[in-house]
Amino acid sequence: MQKRIFCILLATIGWFAVITQYSLMIENRVASITETNIRFFSFFTIQPT
């Protein structure tokens, strides 16, 4: 049970960090919203090695 709570806590912190990063990018953008969205979502793509 403690492991499950710990995993939920870590997932919550992770999602909070991603949402905070997105909101900061939108608030402090120098490009259009479209370009900012593309930059944000492109960052999380998997790059082939």
Describe the structure.
The protein has helices at 2-27, 33-43. The chain is elongated. The relative contact order is 0.09. It has one domain. The longest helix is centred in the N-terminal third of the chain and has 26 residues, at 2-27. The mean pLDDT is 89. The protein is an all-alpha fold and 49 residues long.
Oligomer: single chain
Rg over C-alpha atoms, rounded to the nearest angstrom = 15 Å
Category by helix and strand content = mainly alpha
Major β-sheet profile: none
Query: What number of structural domains do the residues give?
Result: 1
Order of helices and strands: HH
Report the span from N to C terminus. Answer: 37 Å
Q: What is the average of the pLDDT values?
A: 89
Low confidence ranges: none
Total number of helices: 2
The beta-strand count equals 0
Estimate the strand proportion: under 5%
Features:
49 residues; mainly alpha; single chain; elongated
Short synopsis of the structure:
The protein has 49 residues and is mainly α.
